[in-house]
Fold these 4 entries.
Entry 1:
Amino acid sequence: MPSSPTEQPAPSDQLRALHQDFAHQRLVPLWTATGDLMPHHPAPRAVPHVWRWGRLLPLAERAGELVPVGRGGERRALALANPGLGGLPYATSTLWAAIQYLGPGEQAPEHRHTQNAFRFVIEGEGVWTVVDGDPVAMRRGDLLLTPGRHFHGHHNATDAPMAWLDGLDVPFTTAVDAGFFEYGAERITDISTPARSRSERLWAHPGLRPATGPAELPASPLAAYRWEHTDAALTEQLALADEGLPGALGPDHAAVRFTNPTTGGDILPTIRAEFHRLRAEAEFVPEREVGSAVWQVFQGSGTARIGEQAWRVSRGDLFVVPSWAGLSLAAAEELDLFRFSDAPILERLDLATPLPKRTP
Amino acid sequence: MPSSPTEQPAPSDQLRALHQDFAHQRLVPLWTATGDLMPHHPAPRAVPHVWRWGRLLPLAERAGELVPVGRGGERRALALANPGLGGLPYATSTLWAAIQYLGPGEQAPEHRHTQNAFRFVIEGEGVWTVVDGDPVAMRRGDLLLTPGRHFHGHHNATDAPMAWLDGLDVPFTTAVDAGFFEYGAERITDISTPARSRSERLWAHPGLRPATGPAELPASPLAAYRWEHTDAALTEQLALADEGLPGALGPDHAAVRFTNPTTGGDILPTIRAEFHRLRAEAEFVPEREVGSAVWQVFQGSGTARIGEQAWRVSRGDLFVVPSWAGLSLAAAEELDLFRFSDAPILERLDLATPLPKRTP
Amino acid sequence: MPSSPTEQPAPSDQLRALHQDFAHQRLVPLWTATGDLMPHHPAPRAVPHVWRWGRLLPLAERAGELVPVGRGGERRALALANPGLGGLPYATSTLWAAIQYLGPGEQAPEHRHTQNAFRFVIEGEGVWTVVDGDPVAMRRGDLLLTPGRHFHGHHNATDAPMAWLDGLDVPFTTAVDAGFFEYGAERITDISTPARSRSERLWAHPGLRPATGPAELPASPLAAYRWEHTDAALTEQLALADEGLPGALGPDHAAVRFTNPTTGGDILPTIRAEFHRLRAEAEFVPEREVGSAVWQVFQGSGTARIGEQAWRVSRGDLFVVPSWAGLSLAAAEELDLFRFSDAPILERLDLATPLPKRTP
Amino acid sequence: MPSSPTEQPAPSDQLRALHQDFAHQRLVPLWTATGDLMPHHPAPRAVPHVWRWGRLLPLAERAGELVPVGRGGERRALALANPGLGGLPYATSTLWAAIQYLGPGEQAPEHRHTQNAFRFVIEGEGVWTVVDGDPVAMRRGDLLLTPGRHFHGHHNATDAPMAWLDGLDVPFTTAVDAGFFEYGAERITDISTPARSRSERLWAHPGLRPATGPAELPASPLAAYRWEHTDAALTEQLALADEGLPGALGPDHAAVRFTNPTTGGDILPTIRAEFHRLRAEAEFVPEREVGSAVWQVFQGSGTARIGEQAWRVSRGDLFVVPSWAGLSLAAAEELDLFRFSDAPILERLDLATPLPKRTP
């Protein structure tokens, strides 16, 4: 019931009394509900917004100097707080995005939760995230997973600080009251620093899987998606496009989706992750989507138009696209973007499409 | 990160300045977040609560006298507003429940939306809900579906008023910004009053389906689940239990789930519906569930203990069980209950289970 | 490699020697294989054929006089032996069909096997098939299931004989070497004669299922699909067609599929079953199918054209449609037909469609 | 109904006449069927057998001299003819295996069929298989796919001959009458010789997929599984095992399954493919399987015991394990084996398991 109801009863003492009785009985009359309740199309409170890497990183560094990391606070993370969401540390109505920062030699203690998480590395290296005992190196361009229910902590094995993007489904699991949390070891259980995680050694072979183990897992068992593979896949798509062959999203637009190798579907039950590469001068105007997304510029620069506003964006900048907001991207120079969204939630619940066209 | 963080930096001017800069950049530091963010177990704002049919119905009747129903207001419905949810017309964090009331000869105009809906009839008859042009009679004990994207309106073809329960996923679709709404015909398109809907004529034959049409539909194509079938199924389960045969939930507890005959799964992508019958003196103490439910007593009486509180409940009373709240039911006399929940949301997104036990 | 290979080497002593050496090493050269190996389209050895009920029943009766039924022989069943299959007791390459006959008071002892089975009753009543201890009455028009791995036996509780159709996937399970068989009790474990089986009491409620038990079962847990429901569904479809509403296969052609209520899919992993009703004068010319089917006329009469041949068929007559054979049915009077096929095998293995059209 | 029926009627003139009438009406009485019909456990006609690479290759070479390859004969392939299958060119009841041989500069013309196919390269290189216009290099250790319905031909771009293993589901598609075949171009449409196929350029990136295209495909879109990846995966599994970590089949036994990256399931709807590595002295005694398999030794040597017989096997030797036959493998030196089976057929049709244990 969107917009201003037209048939409202005339005010009267009786009506006022009735409304008081409603309130007393914990009832809300539908006919006075504002258009918020069931709008003509998604009307997210979250708004389009851009966070500048050039501002985030210095703040993270200052936090590194002033704020210790340890049990209780758990993580030195700065959450993007969408201006439309009243100060909540949520990037969109369903997605959490934060910059996490770990100084030389620091550790973020182990814990686990039902919330699904990943990390994406915009720059730097030297931190290992330890997932159920498996140390996973974090390097520029990598996507690292911590599916729900896995213990995890991080440690910086170098003498340089490192910052990265954390993505989680915290707002969503909070909205559906499904979050469980548990502390783990205060000190990282395995501080070894292998170049490849055990998970990759088992799962990062194209088209192959161990012959044992469950046929399907709800989240990807592959803990790390390395930049060298992502970059190669994007490069090949554009080369194929140049040869007139299919595979890319367009002649100047390559895009890969990160998948769960046991199902071919999304990496996490609630989160889709993709990487896009637009050639210089290329534009991308996707269909409007039900559901929200967060983008981070990995390299290059261009313009992001979201709804009515446009922003010039470059390396490290983050922007959010609320549900049903129009988006267009234009690359000034070759533009690489990481993107994550809540698409699996909408698709699995048959909510990813708008109303069908009316048949006359 | 639940409970009181232990390692907080000492207050200082530098820190205060840093926090101001965070706020300026729309950032929220994780380490100051309250335990709300990631609690040890679901900590729903929704609370256990009971609404009394004996109070609801008179209020609906008074609304019937004072408030017209028509385009704009759309429905004369009184939504249960959970006391924990700040006045929002939501029964739980994901579920909408309302009493709808239609006087003699009245019509609620047609519209459609992506939100999924059903009606459950606690008493009375005489209203037809018209779903995409198919008039569906509503009678005591019936469950009637209006899956998302179907046009629907209601009309009362008798000279007696009728009230019933509406269930929807409005809070959930709002939380994920997936709601679309569209007006339809102002007057009901088909005011005929057949005893059986077209949908039932096609689909209400046990184990049979038309040989044509899509193999699977996201929501049930069966618009009406009639009380005579529900009652028979419950009766048979208890009779089988008396014969020492399996099928019932317990020796004194029958339970059926309403299904989508094209998949065998839940009736709607976001809502599960069940009917329970407890014999006099029987108790039911289910495992705690992730996700919330609304129950309505159909007949009989007993006690519902939710969390720390207990209520005596009888015919028509509604109560909500927030996520992870403990529930126990005790039947004073034979107790029939209708129940709906958000279980499909949690299950499809792998959020229906808590953290596994720790392996020592 | 269909039809006559064009490039064959000239005969020579060397070639003859080579072929001898092939044979010695258990090798067969592909280039001499006849067109049978990979024909342009399915070239089943099974041929269209009709078996007359008027001939089958007297033979079954004579067998009833001369041949006892008991452990070892297990069943007094006469299998349809497709004339193209060299005397094998197979109706088609994948399907078994037989007339089973049980005299007054007789019992067919219990056994179980991985092969999936059903019974369809063309006439009579009085036999109970006991499936894992659940006695299931058999009556005219009923479809009764014995999914693989369930113990089952039959007993005739009356003083009249009874004959019916057995359908199994024996040829298929033999072809893939997947058959296991085990004897059960020599005497029927439960000779009670309830009108409704336990299975129906639990599962034959439209759109309902017990709230407990596995979400999905590979075969239907509903042991009996009663004629009254099948007939009602067909009657409704034609009535809807008369009202200009969708659901039937055509204006004069109703068709239902029997389903597994836990999945909405086929009753058995390897067998699809349907019931068709053609009004007098109606014709049905389905698309050619990959996979074979057996039809039995339940009532009425008409003409079945299969491939190049046409047969006049009436009550009880059985006919087979081999893979990719053309079929057309014409009803002289209202014509009711039961049909089963191997469609699930082909569909689950992506073999149900021919080659796509060539893109020029 | 296995083994000798015990209750047979005494011979008589009446019975003889009845049997004649059965035959006349194309009926076979079940009670006289031999134990073949429904044996206690799978009783495949296919028998364990070994084909020696040392014998196959010279025969293929001789065929190369005497037999041209071209339209009509289509392929210079020598099919393994299981000694139990009466001279049919079938390795098992469901699987085809053949050695194909292509001389310098030769071409095998293009065609397509619904039968699914793959190639596995035991040695050599220099042939490109062109799948729907995509040239795919074949090199030692590679697995190359030609899923059903794709045009394909082969050409040898070098001046050395090449032989490899072809695997298909021809016996199965014949058994279910689902084969369609069509000629394509007589000359290979693209004789370029890229090191990587277009398919690999799109799909051979671990955990990544193009963001466009169908969510799921019935067969793998990845045309080549390269030895370097298979070898690396096996090597890592054994290294993990040495570190006491899970993933391998056993401490001395690594095994990978080739998968369809769009589903995580088997490469082809009807065929499973795996690669096994046994360390010197290791043994492997798998559970007996319903369904058949073909193994080829890739390198190393050892002993294969199948049923009652044992064979010493080494590089290139092929052996078949019929359904339900016992298998044990013992490695004399490190033993690498390629294996393909019909497991997807059995699993998708719920036929992969024997009868459950009896509950007493």
Entry 2:
Amino acid sequence: MSGTLGDLGEFGLIGALTERVPVGPHVPLGPGDDAAVVAAPDGRVVATTDLLVEGRHFRRDWSTAYDVGRKAAAQNLADVAAMGARPTALLIGLVGPAELPVAWALELYDGLRDECAVVDAGVAGGDVVRGSAIMISITALGDLEGRPPVTRSGARPGDVVAVAGWLGWSAAGLAILSHGHRNPRAFVEAHRRPEPPYAAGPAAAKLGATAMLDVSDGLISDLGHLARASGVRVELSGELFDIPAQMRDVGRALGADPLQWVLTGGEDHALVATFPAGTPLTARWRVVGRVTEGRGVTVDGEEWSGTGGWDHFG
Amino acid sequence: MSGTLGDLGEFGLIGALTERVPVGPHVPLGPGDDAAVVAAPDGRVVATTDLLVEGRHFRRDWSTAYDVGRKAAAQNLADVAAMGARPTALLIGLVGPAELPVAWALELYDGLRDECAVVDAGVAGGDVVRGSAIMISITALGDLEGRPPVTRSGARPGDVVAVAGWLGWSAAGLAILSHGHRNPRAFVEAHRRPEPPYAAGPAAAKLGATAMLDVSDGLISDLGHLARASGVRVELSGELFDIPAQMRDVGRALGADPLQWVLTGGEDHALVATFPAGTPLTARWRVVGRVTEGRGVTVDGEEWSGTGGWDHFG
């Protein structure tokens, strides 16, 4: 479909977009009415909303519309998984200038569709309006399947801290792009299109995770939220992190510390959770530290200072 | 609280905003985690999302932040009510420039809070980011209480068409403001702050409404959606509309036809529904027409042409 949002109009575009994206198996009533109806068999629904603004959260010269769609869906679906819930549906809002090519919006929705397909979710509804800049709002819904939500506040001294998914890959990819390079592709791809370990979220809840969140701002920063909410200290061990040889190579080439990417890089949407010691964790979980009495987050015994950045580390 | 969004930062602002707005009785887990948990006792959740863009949907010189908040909440809560559901919670996204006064955002949330209070709903979560223009995304959730959703597609020949709430008040208010006036205040207030008849939505479902929607684009335009989705014709009778004397006065003063405001004005968020003939309607419902075989919407037998505007009318 050629033309711009201005040519097609908002009603025309929303029709073309919703046709493009299946509602999935959890949406008994999809777009086209005043509201959609989404299954919530648990009797509670997990809900989260995020905004993505061009220039802040993505750049059209660095990411295709398809990648922006995948990433936008991924970060919200990961938030649902981080509660221990199974994602069911997204609602999408798109603000775009009149000169935005319709093809860009269609590709964005292709990305949303394909990321939703990974977790068997669908797009239940949305809105499109014209505005001066591109902005995407995403609301994700999910089902707890009878389990309590896994919040940030349940970590207890003695728990182990474990990570599922990738850490530092998106940050390495961003560093590569920022230096004007396009390779190694694995990191650039990870920056453009994170692969959150969705299934690990409900699995962690079943394993008895005491606290969980998705790593969106950086492991240490996000664990700081968990430590604060739980009233505990999180002690990480640098040696427990597995830094791939290729990431070390990129660090050397760019004069950067790859452990910094792993500990402070956001956007990979790994899941980090705490479990009672002795929990038989599956292979997708890597133990990287433990929970103790106290406050804050340490790495190899050194405290991370918070807002001021790395005081004693890196 | 003084200062701007740039002074306070996004994290600071989201904290100040969420403190300001109660989560309400339907939100067992509110803001502060990766996602909120909202009660969905029916086992399905009604969900709808809308975007409001400054300059398109509101003007800061015509409406206070408080009024924008009330209106933004109202239009989404009305969408939930139009499905026959009871609203439970909102999720809010706010994009604003760095120079946006924090006070503006706080007042916006006061408006959201007060409109939510009308229906005993709360704000379950949200996101705040900086961007070049003010944009608000709202997702509203609701509960069907065991009833089937009332869609747009169930109207049948022989049904009556009935309206609950106000029609034409917002359009009259907009006309007054557009002419540089501020009075009569009742219409200007109705434009700034619609009062949807929320309770009439679930009540209509209980009465056996066959189809329903909220009037957001204008009665004839919205009934066009209903007629198309149901495969029927909607025949309205102009004499059945009760046009207040004060609205007639404003029409005369501005050289406008008040029936045009009533039939084509949006944003009052009245509810329009179809019921089997003989349904004992309560006083809040006013019958304004009937459903017949055919297609389209007529007023006193004349067809409304759709996009071209009034061909045979007004």
Entry 3:
Amino acid sequence: MVKERRILVAVDESEESMYALSWCLTNLLSLNTTTLLLLYVKPPPPAYSSLDATEYLFAGDAIASMEKYSRELANSVMSRAEEVYRDFNTSVKVEKKVGSGDAKEVICVAVEKLGADILVMGSHDYGFFKRALLGSVSDYCAKHVKCPLVVVKRPKNV
Amino acid sequence: MVKERRILVAVDESEESMYALSWCLTNLLSLNTTTLLLLYVKPPPPAYSSLDATEYLFAGDAIASMEKYSRELANSVMSRAEEVYRDFNTSVKVEKKVGSGDAKEVICVAVEKLGADILVMGSHDYGFFKRALLGSVSDYCAKHVKCPLVVVKRPKNV
């Protein structure tokens, strides 16, 4: 029964995802044989070609500064996640991964590639319009990943 | 950290839900302070009034036999669940509940009323048409319950 488990937690800049991580540490890490995979997905770079069509061009340094911002965001999310699991005083093995692209697709591919046994994600309480526009990452993952999926809601009073 | 946890597992006649129960016993029951709430939701009784409209009436004994069938189905699901957790040799506290109505709505109300901390359910791999017709119970619950939701997929090879 005690085999290594690999738990993938999808983290982003939201408090919801940090709550999901801490819920996971409290509720799923009872065994010492767990590897925690932290995955952050950077949004895809803007579609330059469609901007060209409107005769608008990004200057090289604007692109560089967007890439720098996206790299810094990834670092800040990972440090925030580190703080969360350091608080738990756990000796769990942690692997950090940064992907890029459409979050829901990258997460599903990562589950497969990294051999995750459990996928944990926070639930964003988007309103109707944002949900209709963006779709729900957790709905998509529930349909596409093969492992159990934990969707963690952040209680209103936390 | 060690407070009582109440885990609600939605069970039905599917193998998927029994797999979800056994996954839950393996992965979530490391603490002895867990109460397992097994919930089975009976489908709502047929809408007699709409059948009246087509001048078709159920005889009293037909209704009685449908109710008997539904009761027997509930009992058989619960015995199957009992077998699953007996196999785990766990001394976990179990409470069995049977509801009636639209499964997704009854499950969400039960989570609230029974004070569940975690909701666990199997994932049925319905095809496109059945999903479009029925909607997905887990999608609905992900949107409506306030506690973490675990959607357990049954691996193809089990």
Entry 4:
Amino acid sequence: MSEVHAARRSRLRARCSAAGSTALVVSRPANVRYLVGAAPADAVLLVGRLGDDVLLSHWEAADAIADPRPADAEGMRTEVLHGESDPATAAVAMAMKAGADAVAVEEHHLTVSRHRALAAGAPGVRLTDLGRAVEDQRLVKDEDEISSLRIAAEITDRALGELLESILVGRTERHLALELERRLVDHGADGPAFPTSVATGTHSGVAGHRPTDRRVEEGDFLSVCLGARFRGYRCRIGRTFVIGSSPADWQIELYDLVFSAQRAARESLEPGTEYRAVDRAARTVLEAAGHGSALGPATGHGVGLEIGEDPRLSPAAMGRLGPCVPVTVEPGVHLPGRGGVRIDDTLVVRSPADGGPELLTITTKELLAL
Amino acid sequence: MSEVHAARRSRLRARCSAAGSTALVVSRPANVRYLVGAAPADAVLLVGRLGDDVLLSHWEAADAIADPRPADAEGMRTEVLHGESDPATAAVAMAMKAGADAVAVEEHHLTVSRHRALAAGAPGVRLTDLGRAVEDQRLVKDEDEISSLRIAAEITDRALGELLESILVGRTERHLALELERRLVDHGADGPAFPTSVATGTHSGVAGHRPTDRRVEEGDFLSVCLGARFRGYRCRIGRTFVIGSSPADWQIELYDLVFSAQRAARESLEPGTEYRAVDRAARTVLEAAGHGSALGPATGHGVGLEIGEDPRLSPAAMGRLGPCVPVTVEPGVHLPGRGGVRIDDTLVVRSPADGGPELLTITTKELLAL
């Protein structure tokens, strides 16, 4: 894996040297992970102009949130800091010593205070903005990354499938969510990609609903959103079921509607499609049925090392899909006081010649009565 | 609860108006939660000079991480935003309309890019730094907060106690960690306060060790760190056990040493004690035994709405403990290739007249052979 990371750093270097920057300091954790592999939570990467890259960290273990092990960054220099110093400040100082006169930092990640301390610690160095250069590079995934996402989706489908075989009536949202997360780990996930959402009855269809002690009852809609994290890569599935043998008419109608919207968005996924056209495909269907306002601000988003990354599929998003970009398609409608439906998939954009969008989350989207 | 939050906002307003600021924009999630109660993840609080406070949010549900329900902020105005606008920008604009000419923002939370967009969106408004005003106010806890921490600790002790009654040999770190987290929720926790750490054999004693598939074996040290989150408040316990009937001599020695260091730090907790004196109390014991370098950069830290908050108990920390400040005391030693010991408690600083430090995590610290 270390060559993959070295190649990514070379691409970044090539791209940013062209823009005149001398040294780059990458501090955003998902960006660091992309460029070096698993790294401590506080790690900062100095990308030198000559390939003299250094990973700086305390591997500060005291906070239990951090991964205390050094990065699996064979073949690159790592520097373990002591005391309370900021690895970003240390990185800028190191760049200075190496003769850099400009250092590009991630202004969308560094706080105003941290940036000020950085500048104060490196008088004479010109700090510039690296911007979203690493995020831009992360947008299109290589086959290694897609393969990690594919495994994450397989694990997720399996965990969900097992849940569907068990008795659901009478169990709480909270316990169902915990069981799903345990099953993700049982099947090899590093952990959940995001907090598992289980919503039943009037809660169903609420995006990002936090599980409560409400129990599943006969006649409920039950909506479940979960995803595995595998080698750092995160996917997402969402499904809605009906509890009991005979769904009500309004449940069947609402389900069919959300399903049509979701299918329209999935079918629009093609290299060259505008981000907002994907959103529009789903939104038009829901608006025509009078449920446009129930839809959230976006229909989906990119996934990878983060569960919500570029692109964003929303009415105002600018840009066009490229091949090998994994995205979610996740429209939902919630009717206050009644409940609702969510259907979320993770897919990879592929050209029609390559078979069209690759569906990673393959659990059925028929309305199952459980 | 809403009066508690209103009183906190009044204190903040009183304190910051004295410094001349006109309107305050609080964006750091733990600070927002402290001032309004549970709130959506993207919520930003505008604290007006006249008590005209507003909570702004998308309750942006699309990312599943957010809590999509509006704050339990009865009696205060809430504003639900549409589209993709930044609630902080909207808050500054609202302060302008209300006639503010200066707005204090959290420069230690806002990124450089976000701050720049904020300034661009509000020409003519002077942006100043609110600094850590809310964090400073959060340092000393009221009895409501301490009572939430006490319940969190009770839940944590119970979950750990149950684990100790079960068979451990042959089970993986990963499964033990998941079981502990399930038990936390079973006993009423909102969730774990931080990722549960279970470390066995050569992993034991590593701070923040992420559970692996290593199984517990006869003769191992087993160290476990966990904590419950209850009404947002987070505590922490760490214990080390020995597996099998007869600990080795080196295990008994190392355990006694870490225990002495931990006790020395606990006994130093008193209003007026310097933060670094608490660290020194533990560090001196470990250094005398030649294990000073095995200790991390801090011996403990404050807890509350965050698992690691002010104060920090480290050699360079400036300041003195006050009453009603909850802290952890968590020294540990890890011997590479062999294993180690961690003993973590959560305590509340109290004056000797009030009975001295209040131990919240009461699970025994004898070396148990399981």
